[in-house]
Specification:
seven-stranded mixed β-sheet; binds uridine-5'-diphosphate; Rossmann fold
């Protein structure tokens, strides 16, 4: 069997005071219809990145809704992660020459995971496959059983993909009973997806990453890392990856510092197991920041876990997300939920999140710097922006809404 993740327990009743009543009731009604259905989520890692983040909340809430829901991590090792990282970049538009070897590695790990699932002889009503890494499990498992419905959830923007990779994987994508994309703009060009469903992701307002922290507690945590809480700081929380452009963030900070010398910059990045490029980029970024004591770089390896990310996000004067390409951009949702003003690139799911006045969209480094300066100099403007963003997230991007959308899809596929 695949490696099972134990995501702990959660109860929907705890979310009652945060969400609308009709949403709560809708989830209860769907739960009745789906009671006892067996769902297996499969992805490539239990740690780092947005997908794992979502599953830690969604899986317990599906269990709370009465489903028998499990989360399995597929087989993987460095050669596989190197290939799937290249696929990930290629699907987001990077140049890439798809080799026979890369395909063989990709297929072999998917085949092994598929075999393990078949040998386990468990019955699943829904197989919920996340992102391209485990995509071929359906193919190699032969679909497991007649009654199993297969969902492929694409978390990334594949609108301008590398053609070789897209042509290779699109027959497998089409073979699913439903394909979920975050928004229509992310779907691949010229691929007919008759079972397309659009569902944006969401954040968990009650997780350690997002629960309410008092300003005192947040400040206490942040100051332990050497950041001067009496002075303003800009923040970007992201994997160390060219698409997240940490070097560009340092350029933005340098422009801001010319005008506001007391400003500091905090870059927080988790090092994910399926992200071999991360280390190269970590060293590139530390090199680029060298010599400036007001730039702080932290990661999960320097003890910055969920609570610490929460503290940095709760206290930041401006949260930057200078991505060049982005999936949905859960970090932006997290910052908006903490009522922080956000300065973010007009890519991926970011415009959908900050379009209602919760942040400033930028296309260039000077524009980003100008936006940060405006926010730092006008706290009232920054405050109003933060409150607007928070309400937009409450209405659209919290986990109960995602749970409702997924359950509605299960009910449709299973005909209950
Ligand atoms: N994250 C984290 N620590 C870090 C960097 C990122 O916990 O040092 C989390 C972040 O809070 C967010 C997720 O990883 O929940 C990243 O999701 P996003 O959609 O922004 O980007 P992805 O990494 O999936 O491209």
């Amino acid at each position: 069997m695949l490696q099972r993740v134990n995501p702990g327990n959660k109860s929907l009743t705890d979310y009652r005071s945060i969400i609308r009543r009709d949403l709560y009731e809708e989830i209860q009604e769907l739960s009745e219809r789906l009671r006892g259905k067996r769902v297996l989520h499969v992805n490539a890692t239990s740690f780092g990145g947005g997908v794992a983040e979502i599953l830690y909340t969604l899986v317990p809430l599906m269990r709370d809704a009465g489903l028998e829901c499990e989360w399995g991590v597929m087989f993987g090792a460095e050669p596989f992660f190197n290939v799937t990282k290249s696929f990930h970049n290629a699907l987001q538009g990077a140049d890439y020459d798809l080799s026979v070897e890369a395909r063989a590695i990709y297929e072999e790990y998917n085949r092994q995971s598929a075999m393990a699932l078949r040998e386990a002889k468990e019955e699943w009503d829904i197989m919920f496959i996340h992102d391209p890494q485990p995509l071929l499990i359906k193919h190699f498992s032969g679909g497991l059983s007649e009654k199993t419905k297969w969902i492929w959830r694409c978390h990334i923007d594949t609108s301008t993909p590398n053609r070789q990779v897209l042509d290779y994987i699109s027959p497998y994508i089409k073979d699913y009973d439903a394909q979920i994309y975050t928004m229509r703009e992310y779907t691949p060009p010229d691929v007919d997806l008759p079972n397309l469903v659009l569902i944006p992701p969401a954040i968990d307002p009650l997780s350690p990453k997002n629960m309410a922290l008092s300003a005192e507690d947040a400040s206490y945590i942040v100051s332990q890392f050497g950041v001067d809480t009496e002075r303003p700081f800009l923040l970007q929380v992201s994997r160390f990856d060219p698409w997240k452009d940490p070097l560009g963030v340092i350029d933005v900070y340098r422009l801001v510092k010319e005008e506001i010398p007391e400003v500091q910059l905090v870059l927080v990045g988790s090092m994910a197991h399926d992200d071999p490029e991360g280390w190269d980029y970590w060293y590139k970024t530390t090199g680029y920041a060298a010599g400036d004591d007001d730039i702080f770089l932290f990661s999960n390896l320097t003890n910055v876990g969920a609570i610490e990310v929460n503290a940095f996000q709760s206290l930041a004067d401006v949260v930057i997300q200078k991505s060049i390409r982005e999936g949905f951009g859960l970090v932006v949702t997290e910052a908006l939920w903490k009522a922080r003003p956000v300065v973010a690139s007009r890519v991926g799911g970011i415009p959908m999140q900050v379009n209602k006045g919760g942040g400033i969209l930028i296309d260039t480094i000077p524009e980003a710097a100008e936006a940060c300066i405006k926010l730092l100099k006008d706290p009232e403007f920054a405050y109003k922006m933060g409150r607007t963003g928070k309400e937009h997230v409450r209405a659209n991007f919290l986990t109960p809404r995602l749970l409702r959308d997924d359950l509605a899809l299960f009910a449709k596929l299973l005909g209950v």
